[in-house]
Amino acid sequence: MSFKVTVIVQKDDNWYVAKCLENSVASQGKTVEEAINNLKEALELYYEDSTPDMISQKQTFVTTLEVTV
């Protein structure tokens, strides 16, 4: 079984942090690629014992927002 998730990657000091928006699973790495690969492994472990009905596929919308301060 496979499905798509929404991931953001942000630089935090010397690390890149990758986070899945659907379930808040996160991981990190020294490079963007390493952070994403580590997140993929973490998500596989997270979903490993889940059944299809336990995994709700929510439609996620991503946008930007400008805030004046």
Task: Describe the structure concisely for a colleague.
The protein is built from 1 helix and 3 strands. It is α+β, with helices and mostly antiparallel strands and 69 residues long.
Task: Break the fold down into its secondary structure elements and pairings.
Blueprint (H helix, E strand, L loop, with lengths): L6 E6 L2 E6 L5 E4 L2 H16 L22
Antiparallel strand pairs: 1-2, 2-3
Give a written overview of the molecule.
- By secondary structure, this protein is α+β, with helices and mostly antiparallel strands.
- The longest helix has 16 residues, at 32-47.
- The radius of gyration is 14 Å and the shape is flat.
- The chain is 23% helix and 23% strand.
- The mean pLDDT is 90.
- The chain contains 1 helix and 3 strands; from the N terminus they run E-E-E-H.
- Strands 1-2-3 form a 3-stranded antiparallel beta sheet, with helices on one face.
- The N and C termini lie far apart (45 Å).
**Helix coverage percent of residues?**
10-25%
Task: Work out the radius of gyration.
Answer: 14 Å
What is the terminal-to-terminal distance? 45 Å
Oligomer: single chain
**Can you count the helices?**
1
User: Strand order, biggest sheet?
Assistant: 1-2-3
Largest sheet: 3 strands, antiparallel
Kindly list the characteristics that best describe this protein.
single chain, 69 residues, alpha+beta, three-stranded antiparallel sheet, 1 helix, flat
